[in-house]
Design a protein that fits this description.
Strand content of chain B: under 5%
Shape of chain A: elongated
Helix content of chain A: over 70%
Number of helices of chain A: 20
Radius of gyration of chain B: 24 Å
Radius of gyration of chain A: 32 Å
Strand order of the largest sheet of chain A: 1-2
Number of domains of chain A: 2
Largest sheet of chain A: 2 strands, antiparallel
Number of strands of chain B: 1
Oligomer: heterodimer
Mean pLDDT of chain B: 79
Distance between the termini of chain A: 96 Å
Distance between the termini of chain B: 55 Å
Largest sheet of chain B: none
Low-confidence stretches of chain B: 1-5, 85-92
Strand content of chain A: under 5%
Number of helices of chain B: 3
Order of helices and strands of chain A: HHEEHHHHHHHHHHHHHHHHEHH
Shape of chain B: flat
Number of strands of chain A: 3
Number of domains of chain B: 2
Structural class of chain A: mainly alpha
């Protein structure tokens, strides 16, 4: 080969830097061209280690290709392109630049052949996604961004501890499958799971994403959690712990989304729910399950971005964030409504959408392993997804009641971006082979077996019936729901405040006692060392003593010293 | 004029909503009855029963909504719960 393969992440990194330097049309062109160039480079990456560098005692492999790595990188590059198209006329330049570097981090992780490279790009993502959150611009966004950064830097430290441990104990820093059997691997797993928004720290996601700008949340929805899924596929396939964690996330997402009123927070909770499906699949770990996790991640990036785009247009046009403030928008925003509905059907796994052809792979994998509980929980969750995202999102935003709002439909670039992803949602649903070809393992699966389609139609349509019958129970309230982050945002904060108070009180008491002692000493000194103001009485040490008395005392002292010395 | 047009959207008319409900009910019945023609094998026996998917979907949604409702009493707080006095946005 004549050319050394170029790491695709470099193209996006450079693009991100150039966005800051260029102006006007050149900047817009860079926003769109850098991801396309990246996409091209992604497909030039060969299988196996394509680049290695000797660094200190380590062999660094910044570029290692494999089908599953290329699949995720493709989704990320595609996301950067369509997200850029969606955002470039509305977003600030620093948000676009940060989003590109954030995407570069995600793609860098995709091709990381060793844990050091993985860690560096991991942190790059953490830093620049924080910038994207901050681009929300409000005080709320700033505070949420700080909480987000703390959580991710903490996750990074935990990951680093694990990587150091693995490097020292095994001598190898290769990215390879392991089990969380020892401390090092457990640390790595924990670090990755924090990015996957696993319990008990899921709250960072629903806390920060809705605070970002209408365009920023589109980027945020795609990269961090899905990179974590890829890292799990590469490092922990078949780790049984992940099945339980995944099922918990699936249910957590549904329940919290049902309670939520903020439009984009509903979608944020449903990210946790969807990532739960993937984490569970990685835990099952068979070839079909890994295929399912990868395919579902790919489809999910597209339909979740589509949903966030649809919500983003609503927020952009109305400035409103709550379900209880909007409603009836289908009249003047038909395109946004239709694209939102396509995304909602896809996330629900409705037949003929990408969600159906990918999610059922995971269910099938559970059924093949005779995991009864997992299978039925996932089936119930599929019904629940339709409930909380598939109907709830479009219903409350675009239908429900007439809020009297008549905002304009999406600007042309946002509309074009939504149409592209809506098209892909349907395309991958109608022609799943297009995606199946690129999965890590050969696929022998017929998504459209008639009985399977019928089963899911029953499941989903009757969930729809349940939604409309139970609407009175789902009245929107202007509330938030407490999450595990209450423990540190309130309990720990209060405990620290109390402890600070107690320490302050103890300090004051100690100071008072010291003052009393020093006063007493001063009085003592005054009594023995000073002369009264009229000069009549003097303390023992303030009196004048005759020389003779002093000489006798000194003689006694010296004698006793000599005596003691010879004793 | 355009306002009147908008108010007259076909989805605003109660008669049409009623019609949509009927179509929906017919679809629901159809998906269950179709099982007589296309037998669902199922993986674990009971998921092959007539209307299992329908009942399972409906009941699990009912359970989730009720559970969320119950949890809501415990977890729901006013929107400014974290805001206001506890987190002054501008100092520190």
């Amino acid at each position: 080969m004549i050319f050394e393969p170029i790491p695709p992440a470099l193209a996006l990194l450079l693009g991100g830097a150039l966005i800051g330097i260029l102006r006007g049309h050149a900047r817009s062109a860079m926003v769109l061209l850098a991801p396309l160039l990246t996409l091209w480079l992604v497909w030039l990456v060969p299988d196996g280690v394509a680049l290695d560098i000797q660094f200190l005692d380590y062999r660094i492999e910044p570029l290692e290709g494999s089908p599953v790595r290329r699949l995720f990188a493709t989704a990320f590059a595609l996301m950067a392109f369509v997200g850029g198209l969606f955002a470039y006329r509305q977003a600030k330049w620093h948000e676009l630049a940060a989003a590109h570097i954030y995407a570069a981090g995600a793609i860098g992780v995709c091709f990381a052949g060793d844990l050091i490279t993985l860690f560096i790009f991991w942190e790059l993502m953490a830093l620049f996604s924080t910038v994207v959150v901050w681009c929300g611009g409000s005080p709320g966004a700033r505070a949420a961004g700080i909480r987000y950064a703390i959580m991710h830097l903490l996750g990074g430290v935990i990951l680093k501890v694990g990587i150091e441990g693995v490097a020292v104990h095994t001598g190898s820093i290769d990215v390879q499958a392991m089990l969380a059997g020892n401390f090092d691997a457990a640390m790595i797993l924990t670090g990755i799971l924090i990015n996957a928004a696993a319990p008990p720290v899921s709250a960072w996601l629903s806390d920060s994403y809705p605070e970002s700008s209408p365009t920023g949340s589109v980027f945020l929805s795609a990269f961090t959690t899905k990179t974590a899924v890829l890292a799990l596929i590469l490092l922990f396939p078949g780790e049984p712990l992940l099945i339980g964690i995944g099922l918990f996330m699936v249910m957590y997402g549904i329940i919290y989304a049902l309670l939520e009123n903020n439009i984009r927070r509903i979608l944020a909770f449903s990210i946790v729910n969807q990532v739960g499906f993937m984490v569970c699949a990685v835990g099952i770990g068979t070839e079909m399950a890994i295929n399912g996790a990868a395919a579902h991640a790919f489809a999910h990036i597209i339909y979740k971005a589509l949903l966030f785009m649809s919500a983003g247009v609503v927020v952009h046009r109305t400035g409103l964030n709550r379900c209880s403030d909007v409603g009836g928008l289908f009249r003047t925003m038909p395109l946004t409504a239709i694209c939102g509905i396509v995304g909602a059907l896809a996330i629900s796994g409705f037949p003929l959408t990408s969600g159906f052809t990918t999610k059922t792979l995971i269910s099938q994998a559970a059924a093949n392993e005779a995991m009864v509980f997992v299978y039925f929980t996932l089936a119930a969750a599929s019904a629940g997804v339709f409930l909380h995202a598939g109907i709830k999102f479009p219903w409350f935003v675009f239908f429900q009641r007439d809020s009297g709002l008549r905002p304009k439909d999406a600007p042309w670039n946002m509309a074009a971006a939504m149409l592209m992803f809506a098209f892909l949602c349907v395309l991958l649903g109608v022609a799943p082979e297009l995606l199946y070809r690129f999965l890590p393992y050969p696929v022998d699966y017929d998504a459209y077996a008639p009985d399977k389609v019928l089963f899911y139609l029953q499941l989903l349509l009757f969930s729809g019936l349940a939604f409309f019958l139970l609407l009175p129970l789902m009245r929107r309230t202007r509330t938030i729901s407490l999450d595990a982050d209450w423990l540190w945002r309130v309990l720990l904060f209060e405990a620290a405040r109390r402890a600070y108070g107690v320490l302050g009180w103890m300090g004051a008491r100690a100071a008072k006692a010291l003052m009393r002692i020093s006063n007493r000493l001063r009085r003592l000194a005054a009594r023995h060392m000073s002369t009264s103001s009229d000069g009549q009485r003097s303390g023992v040490f303030a009196r004048t003593w005759p020389i003779g008395t002093t000489a006798i005392w000194i003689a006694i002292l010296l004698t006793s010293y000599v005596f003691v010395y010879y004793l | 004029m355009s306002k009147k047009e908008q108010r007259d959207h076909w989805l605003d008319r109660p008669a049409n909503i009623k019609r949509l409900w009927r179509v929906f009910a017919a679809l629901l019945a159809l998906t269950v009855l179709a099982q007589l023609a296309v037998s669902i094998k199922g993986y674990f026996g009971l998921d092959g029963w007539l209307g299992f998917g329908a009942a399972f979907g409906f009941l699990s949604c009912l359970a989730m909504v009720l559970f969320a409702k119950g949890l809501g009493y415990l977890l729901k707080r006013r929107e400014d719960y974290y805001g206001g006095k506890k987190e002054p946005a501008d100092d520190i």
